[in-house]
Amino acid sequence: MTQFIDDVAGAVNALRDIFPETPLQENKFLSQKYGAEIYLKREDFTPVRSYKIRGAFNFVASMLGRIATDAAFVCASAGNHAQGLAFVCRHFGRRAVIFMPVTTPQQKIDKTRAFGGDYVEIRLIGDTFDQCYAAAQGFVAEGGGVMAPPFDDMRIITGQAGVMHEITAQWRKQQEPDLIVVPVGGGGLASGVSRFISEKGWKTQIRFAEPQGAASLYASLKKQRRIRLDKMDTFVDGAAVAEIGAVNFDLLKKYASEDVILVPENRLCATMTEMLNVEGIVLEPAGALSVDALKTLDSKAIRNKRIVLVISGGNFDFERLPEVKERALRCEGLKKYYIFRFPQRPGALRAFLGLLGPQDDVARFEYLKKSARNFGSVLIAIETKNRENFTELHERFTKAGWVYRDITDDQTLADFII
Question: pTM of the predicted model, to two decimals?
Answer without folding.
Answer: 0.90
